[in-house]
Amino acid sequence: MLLCLFIFAPESADIPKLGSLLRTWSFPPLPFLVLSLLVLIYLVGWRVAHRTRRREVPPWRAASFVAGIAALWIAIASPIDALDDFLLAAHMIQHFILMSIAPPLIVLGAPTVPLLRGLPKSLRALLRPLFRARWLHRAARFLVHPVVAWLLMNIAYLGWHVPAAFEVTFCSESIHQLEHACFFFTSVAFWWVVIAPWPARRVWPRWMVIPYLLSADVLNTILSATLVFSGRVLYPTYLRAERISSLTPLHDQIAAGAEMWVLNSVVFLLPAVVLTVRLLSPRSLQARTGSRDRRNFEHVDLAPGEEHQ
Q: Is residue 185 part of a domain?
């Protein structure tokens, strides 16, 4: 994406401006401290859990969690964050990372047990009443219920991209950060349902994840197609923004819509295809058939005088 911006740079005089933006790395201290602390706690807890739960927390889960945190840092501190005021295409790449890259990677890390195990014992003892509170467990189950998680993610995704809401984010950095937080946390809940990381239990059968993902992709297609085919610039800020590439505001919007369409569809459809193949594999079909046969045998009514052998 960033290489394409260089290719589209209109005049040689504009290249230093674009180049300076691409070299811009911000360093928000509080997010850096929080993310670094999360990685440290996770790795300490993962090491403890891995000793007795090698199958549940293999090394690739730790790598996935760290990669997810790194992706989150790239979204909020890399040159992408500097470019989002000038190019909608860069802005949508940032949203893509916040919603479709960092959250599934973090969830694949099965973070619950490692994060809890990584806390100091004194802090765990202090927080134990909170962790055992029924209201907390009920709230967590509510947020990761498939219907709730699907609605939260898609409402945040569609709602913040409504032109009026999108324009408000340029008026206040706090609102902009709130938008990013909504994208990230609702997407964590969405992907929690899809992945169901250990020790989570699925609320719905695995096959329900397929329509869960496909329906989300339908909404992504509607929003992306709106940006691509609207024929007019939907976000006035990018009409006024300084041009740092040869893309006109309308072409920039079309590029942003195409990015969202292709990249998000790949992320939604790929796990749906993988899950479909697994569910239709001979081994999976045989396992489900055997399970049904056992249940039927257990519930059969025996004639008088007959006994189980």
A: yes
